[in-house]
């Protein structure tokens, strides 16, 4: 599936592939083989560039070839069950067109629509590229803050009661932060390469930066730096929290086992007395009318003494 959009005044017009014009933005989502062939033929964009982001394991990188620029970044993605992950987004710049390619509809490219048309221009491809990068960085920050709030809620809940479902949720958030850390560092390296790309003059360069574009790219780099610092800090906090809860669970288990061992010792004493007085041989108090109660009293006395000893040594 793909849409061809172009800025027009205060809005955005949508075009058909046969109406492709200079300055168009082609937003591609999970294209079929037929759609890929059509787009390659219509735009002249290299097939390898177009399909790069369709590999879910593709790493963030930049590549310039034949006056075409490919930028692949990892963008954050929120699943319906509050799980966070990342996926590649390919951004291709040519002298005539700009194309974004992703496996799924995402919040980054979806933010650029008719309602926000005043904030971007498909004709200013370099600036539009940096705006997409900036949107990705701010979305990371938003999701990191959501993870932080979610982690705090889970921590408060786990302080009251240890539930496996909450621990698994905490583990999922820990994994999300790990994904974010790796992706943010890769994206940051991409932004630095783009900043250096402005000085490349030995080959055709589709990136033409003006002063405002450089300022925007510097803002993107700052946002990524902030996101990296935040995600690293909270990754350490979540890891420490998980370790603390693991220690608490282990300690609680030890307390339960110690209590059960103490109860077993206390109950073993009356069991011993009842076993001795239950033998079919002459035993003390056999002729005493209060023998049964005497045996009970002795077993209770010894059990109480054992319980007191265990209590004194903090075993019960």
Report on this structure:
Helix content is 57%, strand content 15%. The protein is α+β, with helices and mostly antiparallel strands. It has a 7-stranded mixed β-sheet. Helix 6 runs antiparallel to helix 7. The longest helix has 67 residues, at 211-277.
Give the radius of gyration.
Answer: 34 Å
Q: How many strands? A: 7
Instruction: Specify the overall morphology.
Output: rod-shaped
Low-confidence stretches: none
Largest sheet, order of strands side by side?
2-1-3-7-6-5-4
**Backbone structural class:** alpha+beta
**How big a fraction of the residues is strand?**
15-25%
Tell me the major beta sheet: 7 strands, mixed
Helix content: 55-70%
How large is the count of helical segments?
7
In whole angstroms, the N-to-C terminal distance is 68 Å
H-E order = EEEHHEEEEHHHHH
Mean pLDDT: 83
């Amino acid at each position: 599936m793909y849409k061809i959009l172009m800025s027009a005044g205060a809005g955005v017009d949508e075009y058909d592939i046969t109406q492709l014009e200079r300055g168009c933005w082609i937003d591609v989502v999970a294209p079929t083989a037929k759609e890929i062939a059509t787009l390659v033929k219509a735009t002249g964009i290299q097939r390898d560039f177009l399909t790069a982001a369709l590999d879910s394991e593709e790493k963030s990188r930049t590549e310039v070839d034949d006056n075409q620029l490919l930028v692949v970044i990892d963008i954050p993605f929120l699943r319906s069950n509050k799980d966070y992950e990342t996926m590649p987004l390919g951004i291709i710049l040519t002298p005539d067109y700009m194309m974004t390619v992703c496996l799924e509809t995402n919040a980054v490219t979806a933010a650029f629509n008719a309602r926000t048309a005043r904030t971007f221009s498909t004709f200013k491809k370099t600036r539009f590229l940096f705006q997409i990068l900036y949107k990705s960085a701010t979305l990371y920050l938003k999701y990191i803050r959501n993870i932080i709030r979610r982690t705090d809620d889970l921590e408060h809940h786990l302080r009251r009661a240890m539930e496996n479902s909450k621990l698994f949720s905490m583990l999922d958030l820990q994994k999300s932060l790990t994904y974010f850390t790796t992706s943010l560092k890769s994206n940051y390296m991409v932004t630095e390469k783009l900043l250096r790309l402005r000085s490349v003059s030995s080959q055709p360069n589709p990136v033409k930066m003006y002063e405002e574009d450089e300022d925007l790219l510097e803002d993107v780099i700052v946002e990524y730096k902030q996101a990296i610092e935040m995600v690293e800090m909270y990754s350490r906090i979540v890891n420490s929290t998980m370790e603390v809860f693991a220690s608490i669970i282990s300690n609680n288990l030890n307390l339960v086992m110690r209590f059960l061992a103490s109860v077993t010792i206390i109950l073993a004493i009356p069991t011993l007395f009842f076993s001795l007085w239950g033998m079919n041989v002459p035993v003390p108090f056999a002729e005493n009318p209060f023998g049964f109660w005497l045996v009970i009293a002795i077993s209770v006395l010894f059990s109480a003494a054992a319980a007191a000893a265990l209590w004194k040594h903090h075993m019960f």
